[in-house]
């Protein structure tokens, strides 16, 4: 059975719990309780440390990124939707099948989408970019918060470090399948790269 981590952000005693009954004691009947369950301790910690995000303003390049995976084709897909002043100005949809990245499935696609977005912003002379992602590793590997112990995370961190010397990169967490139309757009682009129609 998959282990779960229950992050109680606002409750009687905030913290990370490994059983629901322990977490439930902290939130049951507590007004305005904030809590979530995760399948990894890293994601639970990231949730606990998450700060309220500043709003995205005009004249700021934003890229929504996502990844997908096709089991039969043994390939990952990447999707990027670029937004500027509330309008989609460009999109990217591509796939890959490097053996060393395949074990990461859609995570490889999302990380490579993030790098492609940063590279595009550099090529088009933007001083900064905000990457909107749904997999926490996109930010946590880049910032060094998570260890890079897999081929995709190592390659991602190495490339990110090079690019980030030339452009300011901000990150924003978007919850997967939350009905955010721009996140859905990036998801569609990632799937389209693999011939998956939604």
At a glance:
With 198 residues, the protein is α/β, with parallel strands linked by helices.
Overview of this protein structure:
The protein has 198 residues and is α/β, with parallel strands linked by helices. The chain has helices spanning 20-27, 41-49, 99-102, 106-123, 137-143, 151-163, 181-192; strands spanning 5-10, 15-17, 34-38, 62-70, 75-84, 87-96, 128-133, 168-173. The protein has a five-stranded mixed β-sheet, sandwiched between helices. Strand 4 and strand 5 form a beta hairpin. Endonuclease that specifically degrades the RNA of RNA-DNA hybrids. It is an enzyme of class 3 (hydrolase).
Fraction of residues in β-strands? 25-35%
Structural class: alpha/beta
Radius of gyration: 18 Å
Q: Identify low-pLDDT runs.
A: none
Domain RNase H type-1: 57-195
Protein name: Ribonuclease H
Cofactor: Mg(2+)
Keywords: Endonuclease, Hydrolase, Magnesium, Metal-binding, Nuclease
Please render the helix and strand layout as text:
Blueprint: E1 5-10, E2 15-17, H1 20-27, E3 34-38, H2 41-49, E4 62-70, E5 75-84, E6 87-96, H3 99-102, H4 106-123, E7 128-133, H5 137-143, H6 151-163, E8 168-173, H7 181-192
Parallel strand pairs: 4-7, 7-8
Antiparallel strand pairs: 1-2, 1-3, 4-5, 5-6
Helix pairs in contact: 4-6, 5-6
List keywords for this structure.
Ribonuclease HI, Chain A; 198 residues; Ribosomal_bL9/RNase_H1_N; 2 domains; Nucleotidyltransferase, domain 5; EC 3.1.26.4; five-stranded mixed beta sheet; alpha/beta; 8 strands; RNA-DNA hybrid ribonuclease activity
